[in-house]
Amino acid sequence: RRVRASDREPAGGETSVRASGDGRLRVLFVCLGNICRSPMAEAATRAALVENGLDDRVELDSAGIGDWHIGSAPDSRMRDAARQVGINLTGTARQVLADELERWDLILAMDRSNYTQLRAMARGDDVRERIRMFREFDPLDGDAVPDPYYGDADGFAEVAAICRSAAGGLVAVLSEQVRSRT
Ligand code: 4NP
C-alpha cells in the first residue's frame, strides 16, 4: 500500500523512521547518476530543514547507482533549474556502496529502477525496510522523479518542482520524528 500525506501517522506505522543512537536522522537520496535528481532532492530537503530549524538534526547525502559520473559536479541543466527556485546545487557525484546502507535511517530512491537495485544490494530485511520511494512523501500524486537526463529544460524544471514538493512532505514526517525523540 502506498502511504499518502492524508494517512500519515506521526510515529509508528508505515512511516516510522529509525533514529540513530545520537537522535539524529540520516537520509540518503539515490538516483542513477547522482548528478541530477538526487542532488536536487538532497538540496531541496536541506532547504526545507533549514526553514524549519531542523538542519542540525538530520544528516543528508546523495549517491548514484551507476559509476559513470563519479567525481562530477551536478549537471549544469539541473543547477540552472535549481537556481530558478532559489536553490544552489553543490557536491561531487559518488556511487552508492552496499556497505554503507546499514548506516542510513532512510534510503530514498528516485525511481523504481533505483529502488529495485538498492533492494538487491541490501543485506537483510532491516536494511530493505529503510529503502523507500522519495515520492512516497510527496503530497502531490506520483510515483517516480522522472529521469531528466535525455530531455529538455522543462524536464529539469519538473524535477526541481517535484523534489521541492516531496521534500516538504518528507520534512513534515522527519520533524515529527525528531521532535518525538527530544
Ligand atoms: P540522475 O540523471 O540519475 O538524475 O543523476 C542521470 C544522469 C546520468 C545518466 C542518466 C541519468 N546517464 O545515463 O549517464
Helix content: 25-40%
Shape: globular
The hetero molecules present are: 4-nitrophenyl phosphate
Radius of gyration: 15 Å
User: What is the CA–CA distance across the termini?
Assistant: 30 Å
List the strand order in the largest sheet. 2-1-3-4
Task: Note poorly predicted spans.
Answer: 1-13
Please outline the major beta sheet.
Answer: 4 strands, parallel
What is the gist of this entry?
The protein is α/β, with parallel strands linked by helices and 182 residues long. The chain contains five helices and four strands, in the order βαβαβααβα. It has helices at 37-51, 76-84, 112-121, 125-128, 153-179, and strands at 25-31, 58-64, 106-109, 131-133.
What does this structure look like?
The N terminus is likely disordered. The protein contains 5 helices and 4 strands. The relative contact order is 0.22. Helix 1 crosses helix 5 and helix 2 crosses helix 5. It is α/β, with parallel strands linked by helices and 182 residues long. Strand 1, helix 1 and strand 2 form a beta-alpha-beta unit. It binds 4-nitrophenyl phosphate.
Quick tags:
binds 4-nitrophenyl phosphate; alpha/beta; 182 residues; 5 helices
